[in-house]
C-alpha cells in the first residue's frame, strides 16, 4: 500500500518522525487524521508523493552493521547519532503535548518529557565526545590513551541504560482510546528505545573491544 493512500493518523502512529513532517506542512494528523495523505495534501495544494518520499526517508534502510572499525563508525554515525538527534526533539514535543492535553488521566505519560529533556542533552554531549575525541582516535588506529575515553563512554552507557529502563516503562501499548498524537508518541518512543539498545550494543560489544584487552571488556550497559 502506498503511503499516500494511508490516513494521516495511520502514518503518524506507524512511522516515528512522521508527525514532524506533517507539522511542517500543517497537516492535522490528530483530530483531522482520518483522511488519506493524498486527500489532505490535495486540500492544501501539496504534492502527496513528495511528502510520502519524505516519510520513506525517515526509516533507515535495515542493514547489517559492518565489523571493520571505519565502516562501523560511519554506520553508527548515520544510523544512530543522526537519527537520535532528529527524533528526540519530536518525541519531547509529543510528550509535552500529550501530558498537557491528557495529564488528568491516571494512565497519561506524566513525567516523560521531564526525563527526555535532560537525557537528550546528555546523549548529545555523549555523542559529541565520541565524534570529536574517541572515533577519530579509533580511525587513526588507537593509542595507549584510548582505554580512558572508552572507559568514560562505557560508564555513560551504563547511565543511559538506567534511563532506558525508565523510558521503556512509557513505551508500551497506549490505551485503546488514545488519540493519534499519543499513539505516535508511544510508537516513536518504542523505536527510540530499540535503537538506543542496539546503538549501545554495537559500541560496547563490537567497536570498543577491538581497542581493549579481554579483561577490560564489559557487558552491555543497557542491561538487556
From TrEMBL:
Keyword vocabulary terms for this entry: Cytoplasm, Iron, Metal-binding
Stored CDD domains: Hr-like
Cellular location(s): Cytoplasm
Domain Hemerythrin-like: from-to ranges: 73-210
Pfam families per the UniProt record, alphabetical: Hemerythrin (PF01814), ScdA_N (PF04405)
Record-given protein name: Iron-sulfur cluster repair protein YtfE
Organism, as annotated: Rhizomicrobium electricum
